Amino acid sequence: MSDLTKYIQLIKSGEVVAFPTETVYGLGADAWNPSAIQKVFEVKGRPSDNPLIVHISNSKQVADFALEIPDSATKLMETFWPGPLSLVLKKKPEVLDAVTAGLDTVAIRMPDHPLALDFISQTGPLVAPSANTSGKPSPTKATHVQQDFGKDFPVIDGEATKIGLESTVVDLTQPIPAILRPGSISRKQIEEDLGTEVEESFFHHTEKPRSPGQKYSHYKPNAGVRWLKENEQPENPSSLYLLISERESGSNIINYNEDLNKLAAELYDRFRQADHESFKEVVLERFEDYNSEIASALLNRINKSIL
Ligand code: TXA
Ligand code: MG
What we know:
alpha/beta; DHBP synthase; 9-stranded mixed β-sheet; 4-stranded parallel β-sheet; binds threonylcarbamoyladenylate; binds magnesium ion
């Protein structure tokens, strides 16, 4: 029996299996099996009021979960799927409460990763939160999943993920579409595709956030995270420096030379490295957006880890 067949069997018998996507590794479970979904929350230690994203392998599967598919959704699906964009739509009554945390909406995406698509096409739709313990940085390598869940945990090894930050989440259930979580598909790209204005609603930590995930602190290493101060030199051996502008490199000084995509791809791995190598803090150099689509998502994740 091939490993993939073994993992498919596990899903079908109600177990959870971690798998790679283009963003981060996901912790997959059958989207129609309540006890499998319960296991996802237990394994992660995830608060039960934080809903999950349904991962599909074929656009037609949206109709199994969404009550209606607005034109805006059809447009975005055609342009960006498979890809790092999760669409929040009104849910069908039969979608399990455990998936949506009791909301009347459901988030859906089709990941752009050959192993994920092959896997999901054989298991059927899977819920898949990031495959980390709640409060840890999302995993971008199979070894990260095993750091959190143990070395015998079932994980499909697909090497390091390409993007490294979680998908853009866009809510299409209101008159004006709203980005609830920034990702590598930017507001500008979505506005251009829809030909309308799109709101951003991820800065406000209101009483009742539109996306429950906004009120939880994610992405936090044990080491402190802060910005490099103006005129500060990267000379503390107990700090891990992630620099943007060209300067000297060293064992604790990583230089990204204005490549924000590379920093995004490596950020969570660097956070984990900082903890493994017992650095006291991660110090990041501030950056401009360099017209990079990922800048907003990167800033959002860094700010959350500093909070
Ligand atoms: O890139 C990704 O999206 C990764 C990979 C594995 O696909 N998954 C991921 O899932 O990041 P998770 O569970 O770590 O984050 C899901 C986010 C949370 O912030 C959650 O609150 C939000 O999506 N979300 C899910 N369903 C929602 C809904 N119906 N309405 C609003 N927000 C929702
Ligand atoms: Mg997560």
